[in-house]
Specification:
Elements (H helix, E strand, L loop, with lengths): L10 E10 L2 H14 L8 E5 L5 E10 L2 H13 L3 E4 L1
Antiparallel strand pairs: 1-3, 1-4, 2-3
Helix pairs in contact: 1-2
């Protein structure tokens, strides 16, 4: 049985992750993405601080190859103690 998805792979897929503005958050998020997307390009990563600078949003646009890859990335992000939210 294959899982159905509305996406056609491969495709460009942006994933936004938010957390407290600290080095540990940025390092953890980038390690997770590099684990699942070994050929991640530097220009695929965009960062934006919150208005007061307490939080940061990191958007990474990947060349997604499968639903399983996306599921694995979201599972690792959810399990990361530094990540407040991923969408």
């Amino acid at each position: 049985m294959t899982e159905e998805t509305l996406l056609e792979f491969p495709c460009q897929f942006p994933i936004k992750t938010m957390g407290k503005s600290c080095d540990e958050f940025e390092i953890a998020v980038l390690e997770i993405f590099k684990r699942h997307v070994p050929d991640l390009a530097e220009d695929a990563i965009k960062q934006r601080p919150s208005g007061k600078g307490n939080y940061i949003a990191i958007t990474v646009t990947i060349n997604a190859t499968s639903k399983a890859q996306l599921d694995a990335i979201y599972m690792d992000l959810t399990a990361c103690e530094h990540v407040a939210m991923s969408i």
